[in-house]
Amino acid sequence: MSDHRGFVPISMATLLPSAMLGIDVFVRSAPGLPSAKLFASDEPVCESKLRDYCNAGVTSAFIDVEDRHKYQSYLQRNWHLLLEDSQTPLENRLEIMGDVVRGVIDKQLQGGDIQSLIKASNQVAETAVKLISTNEVALSQLCAVLHHDYGTFTHSANVSFYAVMLAKQLGYDQVEQHEVAVGALLHDVGKMEIDSGIINKPGPLNLQEMNAMKRHPIIGFEKLVHREDVSFGQLMMTYQHHERVDGSGYPCAIPGDLIHPYGRLCAIVDVFEALTSQRPYRKPMEIEKAMDFMTSKRGTDFDADMLDVWVELTNKEEVNYEQ
Amino acid sequence: MNSSPMLVQLPADIRARVQSPSTTLDQCFENRTSNRLNVLLEGNITILSTPTALRDNLELSASRQNSHVVVKDLSRTGVGIYYHEQLFPLEKIQVELQHRRLTAIVVRCRYLGPKCFEVGAKVISVQSNL
A89-322 sits in which CATH class? Predict the structure, then answer.
């Protein structure tokens, strides 16, 4: 999503000293002011200049929207360096992870190749699990560094991170967390077949559009069901993430005891991500309000026990912030 | 055919609704290509194949195979049944009723109550005069 016409924001933390990005990088001294070039496409990232800006509190730079794919290629070439640098603060590493996963999923969804999408999902899930599972990541900390624009790839990436957090809190081991992370990255794969006019409509959907949209769990299921590399639980995340425990969901309207645990988990983090993200017709909801809303659906829409654990994560974050 | 168990349990309101067979003109609402004939026939179902990712994970109990089924409606291209367990899209089923054998692919499944799912399937072949 463009921050303003023609530009997209990137994290300063993703710029490696001496790296050749091959794209122009801009900074803006204040909101609304025109951007000035920080690094030209034919020069390496200057360490001292980068440090000066970072020390001055500048956290975002901008690139031309046309250069987005070059930037994603740069991230994919260097993400191990960026993420494994223990000197890099956790927030920055989470932010980089968000950018990388978002970029990878974007590329694969655009390509429409399921084989590549699953392969890439497994690779990025490994990173997500490693980072979230081995660090004390607070929910608001993660939420604060993720992008919240209205894109299926952004949504899937964010849902994946939240899913790992919830899975970890539920006591799932790292293998299960990985399985859940990949399943979450794939949960909206059926939207690839839905008319983009419906997906990107800047307003509520009419009945016909809603019915078309409601087919995405079935389409996603059909895309994945013949694959040997997709587990039953991952398949159910795609098929059942819109089911509700009181039987009011779709596509089958099954009650909670028939919904796979991964499907119930995915429903919680999917709705949380949707509420806390930008939509063309509404602003993102604050975490507290989103949790209030979701708590009001405890036991009707959402698995009561799992939601309690999700709420615990929010409380945990408050303790961390007070410390 | 009658040796298979009848495991589906129709909720009372559904049972009342399917008592009187009639033709439904619902294709406008449901985007259907053919009119459906509401029926209430007993048939026999066999699950012919289950896709890869489901095969090893579903508890395919004996009850999920070769059991009695209630056929809810029929059209030129589809069949609707009441079944006692959840079926998934792309599962291949065979329904035998009144000297006919329909082979069909599941396209949708909806929960109606304990031991009752409404399953819609696309007919891919019909064998008559069995």
Answer: mainly alpha
The C-alpha atoms of residue A11 and residue A57 are separated, in whole angstroms, by: 12
pLDDT in tens, B42-91: 899 999 988 877 866 665 555 676 788 999 999 989 999 999 999 999 99
**Within a 10 A sphere around the Cβ of B87, how many other Cβ atoms?**
24
Q: Which of A84-93, A108-117, A125-134, B1-10 has the lowest mean pLDDT?
A: B1-10
- Asked if B90's CB is within 8 angstroms of A232's CB, the reply is no
User: How far apart are alpha carbons A292 and A307 in whole angstroms?
Assistant: 11
The answer to whether the beta carbons of residues A223 and A190 sit under 8 Å apart is yes
Rg (chain A; Cα; Å): 20
Residue ranges of domains in chain B, CATH in brackets: 12-127 (2.40.10.220)
Inform me whether the C-beta atom of residue A73 falls under 8 Å from chain B C-beta atoms. no
Chain B CB contacts of A252 below 8 Å: 86, 109-111, 117
Q: Give me the residue spans of the domains in chain A.
A: 1-67, 89-322
Surface-to-core class of residue B43, CB atoms within 10 Å of its CB (0-12 exposed, 13-18 middle, 19+ buried): buried
Distance between CA atoms of residues B28 and A217, nearest Å: 24
How many angstroms separate the most distant Cα atoms in chain B? Answer: 41
Query: Tokens 């949504």 — which residue?
Result: A155
A191 among known catalytic residues? yes
Are the C-beta atoms of B123 and B93 separated by less than 8 Å? no
* Euclidean distance between CA atoms B44 and B77, whole angstroms: 19
